[in-house]
Amino acid sequence: MPVINIEENIMRLRDKIDKMTQELFRMQGVLQTFDGFKKGGLETIDLPNDPNQLPVEKPVEKPVENTHSSISGGEILTQLMANPSTMASAAAAMTSLGKDPNQEEELESTQEKPE
């Protein structure tokens, strides 16, 4: 007769929920980033390479210059995609552009930490 270990199933389900929650938070960060791009006036981003193709050779990283005009949208997106943890920060920074610092914060984080 088959036996089901209750504690093992509980642990497995909690682990799956944790992984799905992390993925949800990652997707919310990406959404916030693209919303920030849209609010910042971007309509399209020119990518240097097709992201669906395997790279022929590893590109050499260029140092990031401090002038805004020297970085293309594709380079910004490439840098953000290389470090997803900065996406939410970039989105927050972009959405705060043009706001009066004396105004109340209108945007609240849609991400909550699981208990």
Give me the secondary-structure topology:
Layout: H1 6-39, H2 73-82, H3 87-95
Helix pairs in contact: 1-3
Q: How does this model look, in words?
A:
With 115 residues, the chain is mostly helical. Helices cover 46% and strands 0% of the residues. The protein has three helices and no strands.
In short:
Helix content is 46%, strand content 0%. By secondary structure, the protein is mostly helical.
Can you tag this structure with a few keywords?
115 residues, mainly alpha, 3 helices, 46% helix, 0% strand
What would you call the shape? elongated
Q: What share of residues are in beta strands?
A: under 5%
Overall helicity: 40-55%
Radius of gyration over all CA atoms, rounded: 20 Å
**Average pLDDT reading:** 75
The low-confidence runs, each spanning 5 or more residues with pLDDT under 50, are: 104-109
